[in-house]
Amino acid sequence: MSDTVTVRALATLAPYAPPGGVASIGPGETVGELADRLGIEPEALGSVLVNEAPAGLDTVLSPGSVVSFVPPITGG
Amino acid sequence: MAHDTPLSPMPPAPAVPADTALAAALDAAARQGTYPDGRPGRFLDAPAVAALAARLALPPRLVEIAALEASLCPLRYARNLHAFSLAEQARLLASKAALIGLGGLGGGIVENLVRAGVGSIAAADGDVFEESNLNRQLLSRLDAVGRPKATLAAERAAAVNPSVEFHAQAVFLDRAGMDVLLSGAAVAVDALGGLRDRPALTAAAAARGIPLVTAAVAGYTVLVGTVLPGGPSPADLFGGGGSGTAAEDVLGCPSPAVMAAAALQSAEVVRLLAGRPGALCGKVLIADLETMRFDTVSL
Questions:
Q1: What is the model's pLDDT at position B6?
Q2: Which of B9, B70, B207, B280 is least enclosed, having the fewest CB within 10 Å?
Q3: Closest CA to B89 of B61, B117, B60, B58
Q4: In-domain check, residue B101
């Protein structure tokens, strides 16, 4: 059994969510590496949250974390 | 912590003539009734408020404040209670909000603040309604295409609650104009779309020392937060810095998401104007209406 994280991909990034919203991660894998594996281009990202706190592409993921990928959102 | 930061003091309620004539007139005009929970109460209906305002040459807003201070509830606010006490309702009527933008977010916010009895609202939007606004903008109508959003907002406010002193300018405000609009306001409300004007509004609210309640929508994703002076803004985190494609340009802004954002902003604005602590200060609420998941993140 590999370690996993929950992935929430919002708005335009929804199609990049893994099946069931769960992705396996390797040891020391970062947010940026996970985004790359899911096919999310860095320029498509407005922000990333890990466990409901702002995070960066270099944030190292831990098993059981919840990762939210959010595109730029400015509409009204 | 940022969200525990006390807000600047509210301006005092405007002076209401505390003469016995007003007290006697209010007492005579009040009618016995019951609140929704069955408690007995004394109420003042809208025709009575209008008649007293005309007879005493007072703004209806001040008649309502005087009534509330005498424990008489203007009938239109009976179902605001217990969400707000009589004293908080009076405080709402004595308060001023400044609102920038009268489109999707702004239209919903006008509707909520006017019905809540926010006594003074200064608003601005230089735009006119277009057919493409009809999917989501509450103040837009087919027969109003081409008319100024500010005009429709003023008409709506007067039709729903004439006690609200509603002033809307049909102009796109620059920073200097925002500074003037925010004068005397206890809360600023960001109902702008896009990133262009938001930094100026954030700076204007900070200069006034008042909180800014902001929101953004793309598709069924909604962001709402309250920026305290000098504090972090959701736009800093979620705006993308102006680079990349904004999600709303791909997904649009459907009505349920825009209305939800406006309602969430309005709840926060009314809470602040009533003198309560904000629930979203230094935070952002992320609501995904696609999955019906709501999360609150500290910035």
A1: 42
A2: B9
A3: B117
A4: yes
CB A20 within 8 A of CB A52: no
Residue A21 zone, left/alpha/beta (φ > 0; ψ -120 to 50; rest): left
Domains of chain A, CATH where assigned: 3-70 (3.10.20.30)
Counting as low any pLDDT under 70, the low residues of chain B are 1-18, 241-243
B150 and B252 share a domain? yes
Question: How close A5 gets to chain B, by Cα (Å)?
Answer: 17
Q: Where is the domain boundary, B58, B91, B124?
A: B91
Q: What is the CATH number of the domain that holds B138?
A: 3.40.50.720
Please give the residue range of the domain that contains residue B171: 95-298
Q: Which residues of B touch A52 (CB under 8 A)?
A: 295-298
Q: Do B104 and A76 touch (CB under 8 A)?
A: yes
Q: Which residues of B touch A14 (CB under 8 A)?
A: 290
**Is residue B193 one of the residues assigned to a domain?**
yes
Does B183 lie in the same domain as B86?
Answer: no
Residue numbers in A near B286 (CB within 8 A): 10, 68, 70
pLDDT digits (tens, 9 = 90+) for B199-211: 999 999 999 999 9
Residue type at position A58: D
Q: How far apart are the first and last CA of chain B?
A: 11
Residue in B223, B258, B295 nearest the CB of A73: B223
- Looking only at the bridges linking them, the beta strands covering A53-55 and A47-50 are antiparallel
- Contact in structure between B116 and B80 (CB atoms under 8 Å): yes
Q: B45, B60, B91 — which closes off a domain?
A: B91
ipTM of the shown complex: 0.89
| Same-domain status, B80 and B56 | yes
- Can you tell me the distance from the alpha carbon of B96 to that of B265, in angstroms, rounded to the nearest whole number? 15
Asked whether residue B14 is domain-assigned, the answer is: no
d(CA B26, CA B19): 11
Judged by a CB distance cut-off of 8 A, whether residue B295 touches chain A is: yes
Name the pTM for this structure: 0.92
Same domain, B47 and B107: no
B297 vs A: CB within 8 A: yes
